[in-house]
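Reply to thread "Modeling small-molecule complexes from scratch"

Following up on the discussion above, here's a worked example others can learn from. I took a protein sequence and the SMILES for S-adenosylmethionine and predicted the complex. Inputs first:
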Amino acid sequence: MRLNMIDTIHANIRWLTSGEPFSEQFHDFYFSTDGGLQETEYVFLQQNNILQRFSDQQQSVVRIGETGFGTGLNFLVTAEQFLKSAHPQCTLEYTSIEKYPLSYQQLQQVMLTFKKNWPQLTQVCDELLMVYSHAFNKKEQKLDVTLFDGRIRLILLIGDATQTLQTLLKMPYQAVDAWYLDGFSPAKNPDMWQDELFNALAKLSHKGTSISTFTSAGRVRRGLIAVGFTIIKVPGLGKKREILSGYFNTSL
Ligand SMILES: C[S@@+](CC[C@H](N)C(=O)[O-])C[C@H]1O[C@@H](n2cnc3c(N)ncnc32)[C@H](O)[C@@H]1O
């Protein structure tokens, strides 16, 4: 029998007739219902130049950090693109933080929608499902697995984003190359957009670390600039007028 992975609060989801998840807890969507995959590609992969990083022969490991794993859509799209386009010596290390993980059954349900809508994700969806509950380390509240012959490492840390980032800072760590900030809208979930979180992101970055998010909220832009990121507003997709994109310049 497959158990739910932890004794914690799982996501509280209402399923739309389209099969897409809506968070009852935050009253917000996990991803755009108006083309989730295209939004992920545009907001996160394109703004962070992920494909260029994957093909850069000088880079043997590409490290991506994410706040808000949710359904794993950003991970799945990134992993699929990695397998398609990365140079053969390149590996991907994807670290994501999630406070309210989907249960195995919820993940199974959303994977059906992903595979139906985007058949190109089938292989990565199946791989994620296979490890999601079985490989979970309950004591450490994390999933740390290598997939696809060791080419992709997924580290999913369960906990509050700010606290978990601060804990990472106390351990030996490698700076992240690209950040995906994906924590529901700042108005609905201010916890994911605090100055302490921005500060930890900066400390886990190197000169040139890129960053992007679907929001264009002024407090997020100002908070990231205050800790040393250069941030610009770029046009969004669909209903989103603007999003934020940038890179880490220097510690202030
Ligand atoms: C917009 S969804 C993420 C979408 C996700 N990247 C995907 O591809 O499905 C935001 C996520 O942030 C998580 N979250 C909310 N508050 C959090 C917190 N304080 N710390 C960590 N994760 C949090 C939610 O449970 C949710 O899964």
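What I'd highlight from this example: The pocket of S-adenosylmethionine is lined by residues 11, 30-31, 68-74, 97-100, 160-161, 182-184, 189, 191-192 (CB under 6 Å). The chain has eight helices and eleven strands. Questions welcome below.
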